[in-house]
Amino acid sequence: RSSAKLVAPLGCLGSRQKHTLPDLPYDYAALEPHINAEIMQLHHSKHHATYVNNLNVAEEKYKEALVKGDVTAQVSLQPALKFNGGGHINHSIFWTNLSPNGGGEPKGELMEAIKRDFGSFANFKEKLTAVSVGVQGSGWGWLGYNKEQGRLQVAACANQDPLQGTTGLIPLLGIDVWEHAYYLQYKNVRPDYLKAIWNVINWENVSSRYANCKK
């Protein structure tokens, strides 16, 4: 599977360009044994694709409502825009946060920031894992950057709520804890999935996102 530049999620509503499903920069089986091919195929080609399709439909309806000046319709479409737009944003980040060559620990500026804000990498890992395990129902665990305070923070978001739109934190590393991300392999034992996913975290991508958000 060839790599492709991820489209910018949720572009201008006035644009006629539709959102598209980004290609993965690795094969569906590339993250095995930590995340199996069946999960990756369903997660990417079915779940993420559904968010993209539904987002395009919701945006078309929203543009029609804007043209008509139909405020009631605009308000009624907000949940669909938030859910499907968040699903597209979150997954577009998630795929780049994973790599068959991932795992280990970050280096350089990101590692120094983690030590500064969490005490150690082990403490950070434990905290993000705990936040992710603790999500009730479906949602995400995140490492984000608080630009105002100049520090890293961990946070959890419910459902497909996007981190930045929900908390103001700039997303660096997202861990999907919806059951569709792990159930076929790990059943209902979310902690086992979270233990495994650290083996495929793409720290180069996370470090790059951290460097960019500080500019």
TrEMBL record:
List the GO molecular function terms.
manganese ion binding; superoxide dismutase activity
Keyword terms, alphabetized:
Manganese, Metal-binding, Mitochondrion, Nitration, Oxidoreductase
**What is the enzyme's class at the highest EC level?**
oxidoreductase
Q: Where in the cell is it found?
A: Mitochondrion matrix
Classify the main location: mitochondrion
Top-rank taxon, per record: Eukaryota
Q: Please state every residue range assigned to the domain named Manganese/iron superoxide dismutase C-terminal.
A: 106-209
Residues given in the record as Mn(2+) binding sites? 43, 91, 176, 180
Can you say what this protein is called? Superoxide dismutase
Organism annotation: Cnemophilus loriae (Loria's bird-of-paradise)
